[in-house]
Amino acid sequence: MNTLTLVFGTTGLYCLWRLATGRGRGIEVFTDVNHVVMSAAMLAMLWLPLDGVARWVQVVAFGGAAVVFLRHLARSADVAVRAGALMHAAMNLGMVWMLSTMPMALRTWTGMLSWVVTGSLALAAGWWVLRATRCSGHRLMCCCHALATAGMVVMLAMMNPVL
Question: Residues 89, 66: contact at Cβ < 8 Å?
Fold first, then answer.
C-alpha cells in the first residue's frame, strides 16, 4: 500500500503542479484535473474506502469524464491524440468498474471481466511507456500517465479474485 500511495501521490501532485503553473491547454487542463481527482480517489480506496453516496458520486464523475474523452476521441484527427483520449476513457471506465464492483463479489463473470479490465489497463500503461519513448515534447506527462495506469493495474489485480 505504501508503494501505491507513493504512485498516486506523485501523479496527483505532478498534475496539480501542471495546473498551478498553467502547463496545459484545452483538453490537457481537463486531463490534469481528472488525474488529480483520480489520484485522490485511488488514495481514498487505499486508506479509507468510501461507500454509499460518496462511491456513486465518483462513479458518475468518472463516467462523465470517460464521455468527455470519448467525445474528444471522436473529434480528433491525429492518431496519437485519439489513442490518448481512448486510454484516458479506459482509465475512467476502469475507475467506474472498480468503484461499482469492489469489494468484489465472488461471481465468476465479475472476476473474469475484472481481469479483462486489468489486462486492458496494462496494455494502456504499455502504450504510454512506448509513447514516452517516441514523443519528445510530452515525455514527463506520458510517464505520469503510464505510472497512474500501472498503479491502477496493480490495485485492480490485488482486488481481483484468483481465477
Answer: yes
Of 150, 107, 135, 103, residue with least CA distance to 4: 150
The three cell numbers locating residue 153: 493495474
- Asked whether the beta carbons of 91 and 152 are under 8 A apart, the reply is yes
Which conformational region is residue 102 in: left (phi greater than 0), alpha (psi within -120 to 50 degrees), or beta?
Answer: beta
Give the number of other Cβ atoms within 10 Å of residue 163's Cβ.
8
Q: What is the pLDDT along the chain (163 residues), one digit of tens a residue?
A: 789 999 999 999 999 999 999 988 899 999 999 999 999 999 998 898 788 898 899 999 999 999 999 999 999 999 989 999 999 999 999 999 988 887 667 567 778 888 999 999 999 999 999 999 998 778 899 999 999 999 999 998 888 776 5
Beta carbons within 8 Å of 63's beta carbon, 6+ residues apart: 92, 93, 96
The overall pTM is greater than 0.70: yes
Residue 94 identity (one-letter amino acid)? G
